[in-house]
Specification:
2 domains
Length: 94
């Protein structure tokens, strides 16, 4: 994992402040000394973490991507083995 400039507790507090106050995110971010886009990302991440179906969906998406990568690798290996078999079958002249 990467290193973070702000602790998880600070991020959680900033998100809670942004949600509870009626102020714009940019103003809260300025008062906290954080870039407003960074605070928006923290809010978006917190909202995503609160929805269990979103976590499940992202886990499914990650699994699907990994399986598709594995399929591509296996297809490539199969093609290489087919070419090798064809080459060696022509070499033996049986």
């Amino acid at each position: 994992m990467g290193t973070y400039k702000y602790s998880a507790e600070f991020r959680a507090d900033a998100v809670a402040l942004a949600r509870s106050s009626g102020w714009p995110v940019s103003r809260i971010a300025a008062e906290l000394g954080v870039n407003h886009e960074t605070l928006r990302q923290w809010i978006k991440t917190a909202e995503k973490a609160e929805r269990p179906e979103a976590v499940a969906a992202s886990a499914k998406d990650a699994e699907i991507a990994a399986l598709r990568k594995q399929v591509r690798e296996l297809e490539m290996e199969r093609d290489i083995l087919r070419r090798a078999a064809k080459y060696f079958a022509g070499e033996t002249n049986w």
